[in-house]
Amino acid sequence: MSARFKRLLMAVSLFLFVTVAHAQVSAGDTPPDYLGKTRHGDDINISAMHGKVVVVAFWASWCTYCQKEFPVLANIQKLVSPEKLQVVAVNQDDRETFIKLVRALTKATPDLIYTYDPGEVGKTYGTTSIPRTMLVDRDGKVAYVHVGYGESTLESLADELNELLAKPATQAAAPSS
Q1: 168, 144, 172, 176: which is closest to 28 by C-alpha?
Q2: Total domain count for the chain?
Q3: Structural domain span for residue 62
Q4: Could you tell me if 60 and 115 are in contact, meaning their C-beta atoms sit under 8 angstroms apart?
């Protein structure tokens, strides 16, 4: 094998590795199931929320836009029962900061699910910046993805959530015998 061919093969392999490592979850995709661990060590999986609209929000304490978005997400969860909608806040701080934050946040917004992500969940979702918020429909498919936060996105976020909440989940096909 020639040296030139080996270099070309390595370049193609590197390109494919980088592309796969940063593949972003987009509208229409089935998102990765795992969303991290709670402060008590419980695993949180999207599949356990089938039938609900799920809002997955990647955030961190140092992110000023996350701090603006977070009260909006908490308010949405207060307005819609956890039987119909679940906000899962995936924190990307270090574990110690996460534990301190969540103790206070859980008291203020007990219906939100808070998980800790040491980087694995963010990688599987292709999260390269925060805030990144995904709306997952009742059937477990990503319906909308929002990167960043701005006051102008609030109306579209509300419209999208209302649309998803109005649609029933489709019935899964019965397993064949």
Answers
A1: 144
A2: 1
A3: 46-166
A4: no
- Of 164 and 66, the structure prediction assigns the larger pLDDT to 164
Q: Is residue 91 part of a domain?
A: yes
- In the block, tokens 């978005």 appear at 69
135 vs 53: CA distance, rounded Å: 7
pLDDT value of residue 84: 95
Considering the domain boundaries, does residue 12 fall inside one? no
pLDDT in tens, 134-177: 999 999 999 999 988 888 888 888 899 999 999 987 754 333 33
Residue 165 backbone phi and psi in degrees, to 5 = -70, -30
Among 50, 68, 51, CA closest to 59: 68
- Separation between Cα atoms, residue 88 and residue 94, nearest integer Å: 18
The answer to the question of residue 18 being in a domain is no
Compute the residue count for the chain: 177
Using CA atoms, how far apart are residues 55 and 137, in angstroms rounded to an integer? Answer: 9
